[in-house]
Amino acid sequence: MGYLVLKAVISGVIVAAVSEIAKRSPALGALVVSLPLVSILAMIWLWRDTADPERIAGHAQATFWFVLPSLPISWSCRSCCAWERASGSPWPRHAGSRSGCTF
Description:
- By secondary structure, the chain is mainly alpha-helical.
- Helices cover about 85% and strands about 0% of the residues.
- It has a domain at about 50-103.
- Helix 3 (about 35-50) packs antiparallel against helix 4 (about 55-85).
């Protein structure tokens, strides 16, 4: 149980640090969040828990394939937020992207 709490605390500290960095410098926050820190930590913890190289390889491959579809979401959110700031409107152009714009 303590190990699970430790993993959760470390992951939470990373998210909180990125949030604080992004408040001061959005570009630096984006750089830090783009680093694969959580993926590397997950692979380390997976190795420690299972010591199964096939499982880690599968995790790395799945991570790669799940990152690709998320790239257009980042672009869509950026354009949506820029449009909201420019127009002053609380309603985005794309109704489905509202959840991605409210952070």
